[in-house]
Amino acid sequence: MKAFIAGTSLFSSTLFENWDEMAVDTPYGKASVYKASQYLFLQRHGKKRLPPHKISHHANIWALKSLGVEGIISINSVGSLKTALKPGTFIIPDDFISFCDIPTFFEYEMRFVIPAMDATYAQKMHRVCTEAEVETILGGVYIQTRGPRFETKAEINVLKKVGDVVGMTMASEATLCMEYSIPYVSLCSIDNYCNGIVKAPLTAGEVEEQILKNMRTAEMVVQTILGEGF
Question: What residues in the chain have per-residue pLDDT under 50?
């Protein structure tokens, strides 16, 4: 059993609308999970479309673990910190930075995890994208900020020195999956240049327009996995 997790990248998608819904009770609240055959789907923002800083990543990952998930394929929306990483392309990060929020299931246990993205799943995802003719970069550093606002130009000037893309959710999900020893890969949809990377000012409308374009590509990748396996 494998699971897809997605957020703003697939808000408007109808790909999962005929999947069977399950409400899962967790120690961290309820989570809605959708199932079809040997795959599950979880919308990380939930039905209420919670902003990034309000998402219960604990509930989401706990629910998938309780349902026997053996691997997670995540789709994340990101902004680019590099002019060479153009909106409309995709990237599979092999590392991440998250200083502001490091979640854990081990609040009261002396247990330590050495974080590392799953290299095997990353290679599989890159193979799927290559076969689907989706322009995808294998490897890169994801930086997680808290949100819900975008980063200031001054913040971006600092972040671009150490990272490739910025998002608000992946590092939290990946960390919790690592604690449960669940292989996790993220296909990041580059929806915009970060604030100040290019001369043209960043606008919310521009981001929303690119998200819709990237959604079609993300759907194609998901459909390829559903048809060929992962």
Answer: none
Per-domain residue ranges for the chain? 2-228
Length of the chain: 230
215 token code pair: 């959604």
* Token pair belonging to 111: 């247990």
> CATH assignment of 2-228?
3.40.50.1580
The token pair that represents 116 in the structure block: 């590392």
| Burial degree of 37 (CB within 10 A; 0-12, 13-18, 19+) | exposed
For the chain, the first-to-last Cα distance in angstroms comes to 10
Q: DSSP letters along the chain, please? A: -EEEEESGGGTT--TTTTSEEEEEEETTEEEEEEEETTEEEEETTTTTT--GGG--HHHHHHHHHHTT--EEEEEEEEEESSTTS-BTBEEE-SEEE-SS----S-TTS---------HHHHHHHHHHHHHTT--EEE--EEEE---SSPPPHHHHHHHTTT-SEEESSHHHHHHHHHHTT--EEEEEEEEEE-TTTSSSPP-HHHHHHHHHHHHHHHHHHHHHHHHH--
φ/ψ of 5, rounded to 5, equals -120, 135
Q: 90 and 219 in contact (C-beta within 8 Å)?
A: no
pTM: 0.93
